[in-house]
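agent> Task received from the user: take the single chain below, predict its 3D structure, and emit structure tokens. No templates, no multimer pairing.
agent> Plan: (1) validate residues, (2) run structure prediction, (3) serialize to tokens, (4) report one or two observations.
agent> Step 1 OK, no nonstandard residues flagged.
tool_call: predict_structure(input=
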Amino acid sequence: MDKKFNKKSRYILKALSDASMEAIAFTKKGRIVLINKAAEQMFQVKLKDVRGKLGAIFFAKESRAEVKNRSVKNLSGKYEAIALRSDGKRFPVEIRVRKMPFYGDVVRSAVIRDVTEQKEMEAELRKFKKITDYGNYCAIITDLSGKILYINDFGAKIHGYKKSSLIGRSIDVLHIEDQIEKSREIYKNISDRERFSSKEVKHKKRNGDIVYLLMSGALIRDKENNPQFLATSSIDMTEIKKAQEKMLSSFMHVGRINRKVNILLDLVNHNLKRKKDIYSLILNSGLRVAEADFCNLYSYEKLKGHFNLLFSFSKNSKKIKFKEFFELKDKKLIRKIIVDKERVQGKKIDKDIKNFCSKIKLTYYLILPLKIRNNLIGVIFIGFKRVDCLTTQELKILELFASQSSQILSVL
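)
tool_result: status=success, residues=412
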């Protein structure tokens, strides 16, 4: 060891570094001059046992070449490596290196931070992203200050942005002026109460248009139970709101239309957990919105090319089991449902459906496709005993009903 770096210099340097909560190591020509108490604890070693040894001993085999190269070239800056504890345990670290003059000498100081928890959280975030990136709802994660850390494709799209242009910006960029305070209050409630559910909020698109969202949120904590992130998920209610406004101006029977819209709002505002209860809610809502007599919910199995009956509901609330009527021979009807994903309606039904309907004496039927990103996931069959047609406005409401049902079923 260089005589210039005497005992007094080491004593002063160690006293200063021991005051730090972060692990610090000092090296000269790649060899350890001293380490502070935090570094002794991190690597489970004593200074007397490592002084004079190469600093690379603190790192796993795959990281030693980079550590040595940076030492030889006397490089400063931040980088990551895999550290090695004295008992053989490996863990990821972030290292910040700088050259430091001290008592007429120059040493390299390395502040070493264990980033195991950060890496674990990043891995969890990647899992979360895999689930939500293709979801048909808006998902956003922010830090506690409101800075956007993640937004999924759907969320960025409905706001008119690219994902990359929102990351790092304040969540306020998505809020309209008169609701910024309300939105901040919502986020404060998440921090105080851990979560909230079903709050209707208004966001703005990049072009200034309004987006109506039904939002739920939760607080995410780390292993030490410290608050870390705020996560929200929202259903786009814009089309329902637009339909509500349009229907209010188009229909004379405002009360009736409002009831239908409120049924849809109640549908997306549900807090049910069991699949059976959700199926029942969807079909009951369909009966009330359509003012129909019978409703069936089917899932579609693409590989097998047929539909499975999930749930049946009738106006008198009695559950009815029927033969699955989609095993039919009418190729045009099959194509319209499966390939074109269009609604099917009318009174002239092919033989299988006609026999099916005769058991409950339906006079009119409507088949609504359930789609996620234009992929068919099922259908809802609605039957009427006394209706022989539906108006354009009624069909639009039912298509909104099918759209909201699709979003609900997509996350089951």
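agent> Step 4: summary for the user.
The CA atoms of residues 13 and 190 lie 45 Å apart.
agent> Done.
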